[in-house]
Write a structure and sequence with these properties.
Layout (H helix, E strand, L loop, with lengths): L11 H26 L1 H6 L8 H24 L6 H19 L1 H7 L4
């Protein structure tokens, strides 16, 4: 009976998915923040009037997430990536995205008149 030792899989595909998820979250927060900061950006992000700028914000965040995922997947698919760095970067991106969506933070910068 012969046994073969399995070659460890590269983690680049998983790293691409995790980083792109963090980037998508950051894009969602950034676009939501910018729509509150500028009437021009709010108008640009209004793809469907009843939904307001949320329609463009969510659409562009999903498109950005998908593009990042595809590009990173193609670049990293057969590579080993330092996972600690990937995890840290994803946490930072998610944290910034959540901060930019957090109403008290936005309210401090843009006080309603």
């Amino acid at each position: 009976m012969r046994y073969t030792i399995a070659k460890p899989m590269a983690n680049g595909r998983a790293a691409a998915a995790i980083i792109s998820a963090g980037l998508g979250n950051f894009l969602l927060g950034l676009l939501a923040f910018l729509s509150e900061a500028s009437e021009g950006i709010k108008g640009f992000l209004t793809f469907h009037a009843p939904a307001g700028p949320l329609s463009g914000t969510s659409t562009l965040a999903v498109v950005g997430w998908l593009i990042a995922w595809v590009v990173l997947h193609l670049v990293w698919r057969d590579r080993d990536i330092r996972f600690r760095l990937v995890f840290l970067l994803a946490l930072i991106l998610i944290g910034l995205g959540m901060l930019l969506i957090f109403p008290p933070f936005v309210g401090v910068l843009f006080k309603p008149e």
